[in-house]
Amino acid sequence: NAGVTQTPKFQVLKTGQSMTLQCAQDMNHNSMYWYRQDPGMGLRLIYYSASEGTTDKGEVPNGYNVSRLNKREFSLRLESAAPSQTSVYFCASRKTPGGDEQYFGPGTRLTVT
Amino acid sequence: ILNVEQSPQSLHVQEGDSTNFTCSFPSSNFYALHWYRWETAKSPEALFVMTLNGDEKKKGRISATLNTKEGYSYLYIKGSQPEDSATYLCAFGGGGTSYGKLTFGQGTILTVHP
Q1: CA B50, CA B58: separation in Å to the nearest integer?
Q2: Torsion angles phi and psi, residue B97, rounded to 5
Q3: How far apart are CA A42 and CA A58, in angstroms?
């Protein structure tokens, strides 16, 4: 099992460009999450999907959109990148939305110039 | 925005020392409290998930306790080793409209010196 995979691992964008971060899990988990990690800020939830076909905003959703393509895949889109979106992005999944542990992907380091 | 606080922010200990960290979270609308270990250049990995007041969990030299009524959890490491050096994160899972979401603390950075 690969667990949670993310692509790309690194990306540099210019202000205003768009891109999609991909996330997939092979653990048959129902819930998937996108976080960003900034120095001194900890992990902050951008969007999550409790189950296939549902998505909900987290703490910092502005400037992002998500798509739960199927049970395995959950993508994060930046429509018009801004320097404030420079961050490390982590995707995570868990079996149910409740008390289960989360499994994290390796992260995507995004720089917006 | 929920307030989840961890203390201390960082900690330096000698090999063999025992240490503990604190996670404070809202005492209302509680569903679960998670602890994760995050090594440099890796992804966070779960240590414990606790859901009941009074829960105590143990994994090797690491243990955790939970007090949901007063809104805190302690993580203990007995006989710290250099390989325990990492950032330790706690995360609060609420119920109701917050069900399914986790709010993370900023973490405690532990450095264990040989």
Answers
A1: 11
A2: -70, -15
A3: 14
Span B9-41, pLDDT tens digits: 999 999 999 999 999 999 889 999 999 999 998
Strands A19-25 and A74-78: antiparallel
Token duo for residue B61: 């030299």
3-class DSSP state of A88: strand
Structure tokens at A46: 């951008």
pLDDT digits (tens, 9 = 90+) for A40-79: 888 999 999 999 999 999 999 999 999 998 999 999 999 9
The residue of chain B with its CA nearest to that of A6 is B43
Q: Strand, coil or helix: what is A85?
A: helix
Would you list which residues of chain A are within 8 Å, Cβ to Cβ, of chain B? 31, 33, 35, 40-45, 48, 50, 56, 58-59, 90, 97-107
Q: Print the SS3 string covering chain B.
A: CCCCEEECCEEEEECCCCEEEEEECCCCCEEEEEEEEECCCCCCEEEEEECCCCCEEEECCEEEEEECCCCEEEEEECCCCHHHCEEEEEEEEECHHHCCCEEECCCEEEEEEC
Smallest Cβ–Cβ distance between A101 and the set B34, B89, B99 belongs to: B34
CB A76 within 8 A of CB A90: no
